[in-house]
Amino acid sequence: MVWYEADVREVENRVAAIPQATNRVVFYGSSSIRLWTTLAQDFPNSKTLNTGFGGSTLAACAWFFERLIVPVAPQSLVFYAGDNDLGDGRHPQEVYLFFCAFAEKMSRLLPGVPWYFLSIKVSPARWGISQQILETNKLIRDELINVPDCQYVDMTTPLLAADGKPRREFFEGDGLHLSPVGYRVWQQALQQQAQIF
Length: 197
Hints:
Structural class: alpha/beta
CATH superfamily: SGNH hydrolase
Distance between the termini: 32 Å
Strand order of the largest sheet: 2-1-3-4-5
CATH class: Alpha Beta
Radius of gyration: 16 Å
Number of helices: 9
């Protein structure tokens, strides 16, 4: 995990510079979270904190949990990861096991804190592994019966067209990261989950 160290330190330093960084709605995960630069404007009635770091896998998010999440004592946690694990060739069952490791840490280190897993998006760049993405989402959704304080939020379907393919306007030119329009879709999806905030 050493290759994430610079990015993780950058997050730690940025959080350390924020007065009263605790007891917020914390967003955590890969670049889909890190690049969500309009969180404060999108959810103006809540104090949010962005602790995403680029390129991170679900495995990396579990690895750095004690450093990035435990110290900020979140009011609630919004979590997105798994995209990069699958992009790196991991099997859905492996990503599911990484999720289980993350869920165990949440239950043990932050018992009672509500958290929300945002389903893995199907993007144009990763259309070739769309079935693996959907399988991973199903494995995780089914597991949530056994995970206290966690809810699954479908962020995949709102980005798809009627034919089941991702809508191009919701993504940047790389076909992987969300465009401003794509983030508006995510904002609207989360606003329907009032309990998060």
